[in-house]
Amino acid sequence: MDSVTSTEFSHYDADDTLRTTCNLQDTNGILQVYRTVGTTRIIVANNVGTVTYGSGVVALAGFKPVTIGDGTANLAVTVALASSDIVPVRDQILLITNNNITVSMVDTFGTGTSTTGSSSTVSGSTAGGTSGSGGSGSSY
User: Fold this and answer.
1) Residues 78 and 88 in one domain
2) Can you give the pLDDT of all 140 residues of the chain as single tens digits?
3) CB 128 within 8 A of CB 139
C-alpha cells in the first residue's frame, strides 16, 4: 500500500501533454504524479513534493492539477500511517474528536494564502468491552 494516495485529477506531463486520470504516489519520500495504463504506472510528473516520514509533513511543490476527476474543486490526499501511535489494551475504546486533528496548508509561493482546518476519517474495529463516559468522536 502506498503511503500517500489521492483522488483522480488531470496534470500536464514534461512534454506539455494533458494527462487525465492521474493520481499521487510516494516513492521513497518523493511525491510523483502517475497515470495507469493497464496494470502499469506511468510517471507523468516526478518530484512534485516530499514526504518527511519522521515528522509526517507532506509538502507539495510544483504540483499543478488542471481539473479534478469528480468535477469538484476538492482533491483528496490520503496519508497512511506506518504504525499506530496509540494502541488500545484490555478492551479499551479510543475516541478521537475532530478537535484533536489539525491540517495546516501554507502557501510557500508568496500568494498570501494560508488555510487551517480540521477533518478526520477514522476506521477500525473494536471487540468486547464497554465505552467510557462522556466525550464524542469516532471509535477507533
Assistant:
1) no
2) 578 889 999 999 999 999 999 999 999 999 999 999 999 999 999 999 999 888 778 888 889 999 999 888 888 888 887 776 677 778 887 777 767 666 666 666 655 555 555 444 444 443 433 333 333 343 33
3) no
Residues 7 and 27 in one domain: yes
Whole-structure pTM value: 0.65
Q: How many domains does the chain have?
A: 2
Q: Are residues 14 and 47 in the same domain?
A: yes
CB burial of residue 9 (10 Å; 0-12, 13-18, 19+): buried
> Using an 8 Å Cβ cutoff, are 36 and 21 in contact?
yes
Do 74 and 8 share a structural domain? yes
By C-alpha distance, which of 46, 44, 48 is closest to 61? 48
Q: Where are the alpha helices (DSSP H) in 12-121?
A: none
